[in-house]
Input
Amino acid sequence: MVLFGAEKVSHGSAPEAIQMIRQYFSHRGLNPDKHKVTDADDYGYWLTEGSAKIYIFVQESSQDAVLRITSPLVYLPEDKSKLEPLYRHLLDLNSSMTNCALATHQNLVLIVAQRPTRGLTQEELDNLVWHIAYVADMFDNQLAEQYSCQLYRE
Output
């Protein structure tokens, strides 16, 4: 916790957000250069927390840059009769989630948090990454078992 406004606050630029991400990795004892996403259009990093793979992206936009933290959980079930109950369950879970949401992209279920980088602090970035990792680790196995889904693996 930083007192009296001494914590650095982002003015919304991608380089500021990238510096915060690099600092996050350094504080965790990880080399950020070894955790870059090589095929990302924008700035991207990855890490593993428990059974979850977490991706952190900074995307340029016409306004401020945007921070996007995501974690793929499971592949959609092959049994199509399980899709509607799964989607319903994801919507029900979303109604009680804070700072993130469950979503689908192509054939994956993932957890996502996104916000503009303007006003972002190091503490908020750290908390968002931790929160996504916690929620991802909590739901991946549960969804896989309940809906006969395959866990996400690269």
